[in-house]
Amino acid sequence: MELDIQCEEMSPSRWAELLSTMKSCKTIRLDDCNLSSSSCEDLSSIINMNPSLTELKLNNNELGDEGIEYLCKGLLMPSCSLQKLWLQNCNLTSASCETLRSVLSAQPSLTELHVGDNKLGTAGVKVLCQGMMNPNCKLQKLQLEYCELTADIVEALNAALQSKPTLKELSLSNNTLGDTAVKQLCWGLVEASCNLELLHLENCGITSDSCREISAVLSNKSSLIDLSVGDNKIGDSGLALLCQGLMHPNCKIQKLWLWDCDLTSASCKDLSRLISTKETLTEISLIDNNLRDSGMEMLCQALKDPKSKLQELWVRECGLTTACCKAVSSALSVNKHLKVLHIGENKLGDAGVELMCEGLLHPNCNIQSLWLGNCDLTAACCATLATVMATKQCLTELDLSYNSLEDEGIRKICEALRNPSCNVQQLILYDIFWSSEVDDELRALEESKPEVKIIS
Question: Any idea where this protein resides (predicted)?
């Protein structure tokens, strides 16, 4: 049994009702439910009396250190079988880390700990690392985003990594680490016996200076399949170093996030080589990089390579215009694997989207999710988009937000949605102005086709 409630104010009667239900739940999720430390006393009892409970998610509640102390009393009970614990943004400080260390040391069932968005600090996380080093700890996933960590944390993390071969996911994004600390972390990862699968280092103050060391991790850890270094100023020179590791035969990368990394079209030669030859790569995010049309054309050429297995390409806000749309269309007409294309916030215009639709309508194209928000579109391209919606049964999600489609354009899109062969299940239309008459048509359409969700 699963209890999944979000954003609900808990009255005493409602809480009492839920507590009764929780006694038999395998999963309890209570994000944004205005819970407090007193709620944790009750939850501690539930953990103790419900040995089938394996996942507890309490994100965005003001639990505080006192609440965690109550909660951990239940977590330390022999009857506890909890595997996943989510405590993101719960107003915790380093004081909670001693209590959590006890749980890590004593509870071998716990495999996931998510404590991001809490002011744990370097001193607090050092205490957590001591718990990780206990032989009883079998932690596989550790999430420490926005925890106010500094470079001083790396020595403790490396010691924990050395002793913890079970660890598969480590997220340190949005902490002020810097190049020196990231280099040290990478040296530790290369030496450690852990089989890390996910490493997230977004917004960690990384430059090209530490990319050689990250590249070495990619070359040495064939287990690493998910790397995110977005929101770091690595630049074209850093990307060239990363690609040395990414192209290594040992590297089996599947998901690569490089958003807002100060890349230009100069990086697209290396990226194209990666897309066309690294058959494990299925998802790449290049959002908010100045790739421009020339860079996009190189990427499209790579997508046409038979060895490319890319399924998701994110190129929002990349300085693209109508000029690259013929190349995009050509790639869509050849590549059978691409399922998600996020190309919004580029000045494609009606003419560009008309060109893209030629590729979208090709039998080889299997696009499921297409994002065209804020692309300078008008009603002029909506008839062609409507044809795509009615023809391509694989298309299930379409974003047209922040475009001046007006009544005429929205009516054409609605007409396509009414077509029995249209499989679009989610239509996103943020910040588009239409009349009350069209609004009534949209509401009627949702009623007649409940499987369709229109988000505006």
Answer: Cytoplasm; Nucleus
